[in-house]
């Protein structure tokens, strides 16, 4: 729901979350990690505020409350795991301990990419999509993953 003054959104409990709130939190988060928020460009406001920085090319994602911390922590773990297996996905900004909790909100910083492939590279199966399923062991949730090429039999590990 849009706030009565049109400046932002209101959470179910009545806490306001608008661009001014998100940009203030971004400024504090950038100060903590050594980024400059001066060139911040708001992109989208919903459950999260998505804000682009140009130098360096970064996308900041700010969750409206700390209640999202468990979900964001899982997302960060999956993103790190994807990076560790060179899976084509957007990457976290390196060398920053994430997620951050700033002003009672959860903040993550991601590399701004022009294009993220939606399919695996030829080295991973001639462009066939790879489905990832937890199977126990090294997967961020405590499992591992097996990559199955589209159309391959159930026993075809990638």
- Strand pairing plus helix content: what structural class? alpha+beta
Order the strands across the largest sheet as they lie in space: 3-4-5-7-6
Mean pLDDT equals 76
Radius of gyration: 18 Å
Question: How would you describe the shape?
Answer: globular
Strand content: 25-35%
Order of helices and strands, N to C? EEHEEEHEEEE
Q: Could you give the count of β-strands?
A: 9
How many angstroms separate the termini?
Answer: 44 Å
Oligomer: single chain
Architecture overview:
By secondary structure, the protein is α+β, with helices and mostly antiparallel strands. Strand 4 and strand 5 (58-63) form a beta hairpin. The chain has a five-stranded antiparallel β-sheet with strand order 3-4-5-7-6, sandwiched between helices. The longest helix has 16 residues, at 69-84. It is built from two helices and nine strands.
List keywords for this structure.
single chain, 158 residues, alpha+beta, 5-stranded antiparallel β-sheet, two-stranded antiparallel sheet, 2 helices, 27% strand
């Amino acid at each position: 729901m849009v706030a009565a003054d049109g400046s932002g959104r209101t959470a179910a409990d009545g806490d306001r979350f608008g661009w001014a709130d998100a940009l203030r939190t971004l400024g504090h988060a950038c100060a903590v990690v050594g980024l400059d928020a001066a060139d911040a460009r708001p992109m989208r406001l919903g459950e999260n505020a998505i804000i682009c920085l140009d130098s360096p090319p970064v996308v900041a994602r700010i969750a409206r409350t700390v209640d999202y911390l468990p979900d964001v922590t899982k997302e960060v773990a999956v993103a790190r795991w994807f990076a560790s297996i060179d899976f084509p996905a957007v990457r976290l900004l390196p060398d920053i301990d994430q997620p951050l909790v700033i002003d009672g909100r959860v903040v993550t910083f991601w590399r701004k990419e022009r294009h993220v492939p939606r399919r695996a590279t030829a080295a991973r199966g001639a462009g066939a999509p790879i489905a990832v399923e937890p199977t126990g062991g090294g997967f961020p949730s405590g499992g591992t993953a097996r990559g199955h090429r589209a159309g391959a039999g159930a026993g075809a590990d990638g």
